[in-house]
Design goal:
Chains A, B: This is Aspartate--tRNA(Asp/Asn) ligase. The structure is a homodimer of 419-residue chains. Chain A is an alpha+beta fold and 419 residues long. Chain A folds into 2 domains: 85 residues, Nucleic acid-binding proteins (OB fold (Dihydrolipoamide Acetyltransferase, E2P)), CATH 2.40.50; 285 residues, 2-Layer Sandwich (BirA Bifunctional Protein, domain 2), CATH 3.30.930.10. Chain A is built from 10 helices and 16 strands. In chain A, strands 6-10-11-16-15-14-13-12 form an 8-stranded mixed β-sheet, sandwiched between helices. In chain A, helix 3 crosses helix 5 and helix 3 packs across helix 10. Chain A is elongated, with a radius of gyration of 26 Å. In chain A, 49% of the residues are buried. At the A-B interface, strand 1, helix 2, helix 3, strand 6 and strand 7 of A face strand 1, helix 2, helix 3, strand 6 and strand 7 of B.
Chain lengths: 419, 419
């Protein structure tokens, strides 16, 4: 539309006659006045009309335009309203199946997700995805500023990328193929090309459980870098990226204390024992409850929302993980907990061909199906490592959403293939 | 590695003693000198050694470091070399299966693709993906600058996104699902939320033919925008985005003449008839030969590498396409040809619910499976449209590559699921 002014730009047009266009968000009558709220892609604008509602009979969510004079009005949304206005209906709508005009969406999560085409229009829902987009932009900008190159890798594979479990199988011209669980093997190969790479893309996990933390498709923010000393060089990049993402989200940054506190896996278990009275020593991984306890501890001890846990038992990490040279049963790996939830996982990888052959053999995995990948290590790879951030999980945790599905536009879970 | 200098930054260190690290790219002996070329993620560096090669017996592609004094040397790569150097081997390699040290890779395309982990290290191969990354960054920056919001949509669907043909089917917890052929339906829904959206992501086409122009997975650069008058508003954005991508690629921009010339579909057929003597009038689509002829014509007539073709017959465009109000058998759609190859497709979409019901019925498609999508139109959608750019195809054409597979890191075609 020519000459249309976005609601976010009205402040620059006080005293002028302008046209706004958007969705009929709400109406309210008070005394002899009608207040008409129009929502566009960026915000809300109030049109105040004396007397009869010019849009009487027009349902909310209809697409409308209003032309009027921009007036400062401290009590209106954004401190601005339109007066002396005329309205036109661009595209009429049926009455919406959800009430979008209240501050909160009062519908169950399944209903909201079923009606995503409408529920996502609610300003509170919409904001989640504005924040997520800003976080992704910050991820990319931080890494591009450190000379990382963006890559795009295959999502349909001849074999499973991280081992055989939890993969979706598909028919590829009569052959069996799998959806990528991560870009891991490809991003490592690309360290041999660009040294530093990142990828933003979907990954697919056929995990057969319904929790508030899991999606069967999610957006993975992956990075990988060469010529590191060990996993701590990777953690330094994670810290920078994550801090930039929090800042881009416009979140209050009180809990971002750099450097992020770090504890070893065995220390984490000792803390859970001494501070929370649960003896988890000897377990090979942290449970969700362990992570929550550690999050609480990091907040109390350091005022930090973030906590690195390093040195997970090698047996629980994937075959490409570099052992800790001082404690070979442990690994040069880390997770980053954010308010008690793992949002990043990473570490140093093996880089010697012989080490790969030994690691695969120790796990009973065949090397031959991975020859295309092992080629990189036969022909020269530097010490390297990387990390992956789960976008939806990070955004949900940052915004205090109870369920990761609320941070996916159209989430995929065991029962949900639509919308 | 601490204190390591990237090859691209050596110019700032002339006279200093520095360490570079990378892959042993090539060696050459001349008179009493040995020239050692080290390749890192950004370029090449020459180490010149008097007498015996200190890396004798070390295979090319081994990861090495060299410490030496930076000296201006006009005949060396980048005009810089290291002298009085010492070398160390960080990670030894087996002799590479391809010769990377020559200006060109002398291996067949299938061999290059099979050995992608190594062939991508060749500077000429690597450059393709640096350019592609820069093009994607320009796509995003241009759209963010115009208030578009980035979105991430599902790649696993309960039904086919663009109609039933050419979709990959998969097993989703015992149910039949499909890989997304495009984010089309989702990006339209999101116009109802943000008005302007874009997505960069993989799409999957089970097209059962092997050509130099098709991939079964490719990177689609999608955008969609609301409150347009018609498809020409979309074309204006395409032109801006595409020009920014060409500029970001560092390509010579001689063929970028703005505004891009535009011909109607029927005019295009007349041109092919009159200028090339082939009577294609009455055909419902353009063939690859038609596109090549039109590319040649646009270059001769306007000095333009780009040509918009508008008004394709409605029957050949998807169900959501807006008819041309003046010629209802034609559509408010366009393709953008670049040097005689379609690289962008787009147009105005239907926005009225009743129009969708009529269009689906006319094509014999059921509305019920699309109810989750049609909901957006029942509840208010503005006139809108969008476009999709095939990244690999655009990059290949821009760089003069004969086969689109050369612009995919790890291409997927009918026979290729690995690497």
């Amino acid at each position: 539309m020519q000459d249309r002014v976005c609601t976010s730009q009205l402040g620059a047009h006080v005293g002028e006659r302008v046209t706004v266009a958007g969705w009929l968000h709400a109406r309210r009558r008070l005394g002899g006045l009608t207040f008409i709220l129009i929502r566009d892609g960026w915000g809300l604008c109030q049109l105040t009309v004396e007397g009869r509602d010019p849009l009487e009979g027009v349902e909310n969510e209809s697409v409308v335009a209003a032309t009027g004079t921009v007036v400062a009005a401290p009590e209106a949304p954004g401190g601005i309203e339109l007066r002396d206005g005329t309205t036109t209906v661009i595209s009429p709508a049926e009455a919406p199946p959800l009430t979008l005009s209240k501050r909160e969406l009062r519908a169950s999560l399944p209903t909201q997700l079923d009606l995503a085409a409408i529920s996502l229009r609610h300003p509170a829902r919409r904001r989640v995805f504005q924040v997520a987009a800003a976080m992704v932009a910050a991820f990319r900008e931080t890494l591009r500023g450190r000379a990382f190159t963006e890559i795009f890798t295959p999502k349909v594979l001849g074999g499973a990328s991280e081992g055989g479990a939890n993969v979706f199988a598909l028919d590829y011209f009569g052959r069996r193929a799998f959806l990528a669980q991560s870009p891991q093997l490809y991003k490592q190969i690309m360290v041999g090309v660009f040294e530093r790479v990142f990828e933003v893309g979907p990954v697919f996990r056929a995990e057969p459980h319904e929790t508030t933390r899991h999606l069967n498709q999610y957006t993975s923010l992956d990075a990988e870098m060469g010529f590191i000393t060990d996993h701590r060089d990777v953690m330094a990049v994670v810290e920078e990226v994550v801090a930039a993402m929090v800042a881009a989200a416009g979140a209050q940054e009180q809990g971002v204390r750099r450097p992020f506190p770090t504890v070893a896996f065995w220390e984490a278990q000792e803390i859970i024992h001494s501070a929370f009275g649960r003896d988890v020593r000897g377990e090979e991984d942290l449970s969700p409850q362990d992570e929550r306890d550690l999050g609480q501890w990091a907040k109390a001890e350091f005022g930090s929302d973030f906590l690195f846990v390093t040195g997970y038992p090698l047996a629980k990490r994937p075959f490409y993980t570099q052992p800790d040279p001082n404690h070979p049963g442990d690994s040069n790996s880390f997770d980053l907990l954010f308010r008690g939830l793992e949002i990043v996982t990473g570490g140093q990888r093996l880089h010697r061909y012989a080490d790969y052959l030994a690691a695969l053999e120790a796990r009973g995995m065949a090397a031959a199906p991975l020859e295309w990948y092992l080629l990189a290590f036969r022909h020269g790879m530097p010490p390297h490592g990387g990390f992956a951030i789960g976008l939806e999980r990070f955004a949900a945790q940052l915004l205090g959403l109870a369920n990761v599905r609320e941070a996916a536009l159209f989430p995929r879970d065991m029962s949900r293939l639509q919308p």
